[in-house]
Specification:
286 residues, mainly alpha, 12 helices, 77% helix, globular
């Protein structure tokens, strides 16, 4: 198992546990407060990296709009993800978020003028069926959080496409810095009047939200630098299997037949989206 695969699996695990700590903290800590503390370490990390390399803190004028899109749309995606984690079963929120690769493939047709082959269309169709099966057991009260969870996946897809467009034009540290800065500033605007002084237990949850979120984002960034997305993207779906188990043992969430079928459809969608490329790459190496 090479380093890129290990990092991708580690990232998937970290993001699954991030959902756990967001859900635990949401009992007492407001959503925007969680997002604020989640991004403070990333902001400091990005700033230190830029200062150490003596790079500018400002993007090039020609890239400012894409930096803005990545930052603001990425922030809205994080809000949607944290909200879905708090309101839905952990496995449902995590699975909905991991439909983002399918949305990236669809959006790339319109925004990047990429071709859309049959496998990508089948993957999107299977992911849609899986989403309907997963949301159905949630009942009426799960519809709005479910839609917000889907929006989170769609929004992060737009953010990732903007990162792709910024490739070789701005450093990853600068993109990370402005994303974290935007999240801190925008979430801080909601803190007056809603800030809750965390208890010792809640401080621990906030620390773990920041730790797992930061480690997950760092490891996935390095993984994609070491190997193409088509080779390692499929390993991110390990979280689809892990999250239902975490939800069951930590929150006593029910693992229904409909949920299992829905997860199965999304894993099958992941296979159509990533699996054939993965097999082709490995066959070429033999």
């Amino acid at each position: 198992m090479n380093r890129a695969v290990r990092l991708m699996l580690f990232s998937s695990i970290m993001h699954s546990f991030l959902g756990v700590f967001v859900k635990l903290g949401a009992v007492e800590i407001p959503l925007m407060e969680q997002i604020f503390f989640r991004n403070i370490p990333l902001l400091l990390y990005g700033y230190v990296r830029l200062r150490k390399s003596k790079a500018s803190l400002l993007p090039k004028k020609s890239n400012a709009f894409l930096i803005f899109i990545r930052a603001v749309v990425g922030f809205s995606s994080m809000v949607g993800l944290f909200y879905a984690n708090a309101k839905l079963d952990l496995s449902v929120a995590q699975v909905l978020y991991r439909t983002s690769p399918m949305w990236i493939g669809l959006l790339a047709v319109f925004l990047l003028k990429e071709s859309y082959d049959r496998n990508k269309f089948i993957a999107l169709l299977l992911a849609f069926i899986g989403t309907l099966l997963i949301l159905r057991p949630q009942g009426y009260l799960g519809i709005v959080p479910g839609i917000i969870g889907l929006y989170s996946a769609l929004a992060v897809s737009v953010a990732y496409i903007s990162i792709h467009l910024l490739q070789d034009r701005e450093s990853p540290d600068l993109i990370l810095f402005w994303f974290a800065l935007s999240c801190v500033v925008l979430s801080a605007a909601f803190l007056p009047g809603s800030f809750v002084l965390p208890s010792t237990k809640q401080w621990i949850y906030l620390f773990l939200v920041a730790l797992t979120g930061g480690l997950g984002q760092w490891s996935v960034t390095i993984a994609y630098q070491l190997a193409p997305a088509g080779e390692i993207g499929i390993y991110d779906y390990f979280g689809v299997l892990l999250s239902p188990l975490l939800g069951r043992f930590i929150f006593s969430e029910n693992i229904s037949l409909m949920k299992i079928l829905g997860i199965g459809f999304i894993l099958l969608a992941a296979w159509f989206h990533h699996g054939k490329k993965f097999l082709a790459k490995n066959k070429d190496r033999r």
